[in-house]
């Protein structure tokens, strides 16, 4: 495959950004990035914000999200968007996986 092929293969490095959370970049280009986050039950994604627009898809499990001043639960199959600069975070209610896309790419994840 050419060196500029945008397809990434499984086996990219794993990171552990928080206790009980594993992050793996699935694919990335400067304009967009797709990332898998796996959570153990009770693990938290700390409240934070960033300039990137984010889409989140719940592949499995159940999560309680805080997005700005709102709190809501999601389950497998649910998706939502996080605008740039909005504080957000989550608590995992049932072990699972979130697939997040960021635009532009989160260079701090590389």
Structural summary, described in words:
- The protein has one domain: Jelly Rolls (Sandwich).
- With 110 residues, it is mostly beta strands.
- It has no helices and 8 strands.
- Strands 1, 2, 3, 4, 5, 6, 7 and 8 form an 8-stranded antiparallel sheet that branches.
- This is Cupin domain protein.
- Pfam families: Cupin_2.
Question: Quick one: biggest sheet?
Answer: 8 strands, antiparallel
CATH topology: Jelly Rolls
Overall 3D form: globular
Q: In the CATH hierarchy, what is the class?
A: Mainly Beta
Distance between the termini: 21 Å
Count of discrete structural domains: 1
* Percent helix: under 10%
Q: Which oligomeric form is depicted?
A: single chain
SS summary, helix count: 0
Q: Rg, please?
A: 14 Å
Can you write the helix and strand succession as a string?
EEEEEEEE
| Uncertain ranges | none
Note the beta-strand portion: over 45%
Q: Care to count the β-strands?
A: 8
Structural class: mainly beta
Protein name: Cupin domain protein
Domain Cupin type-2: 37-93
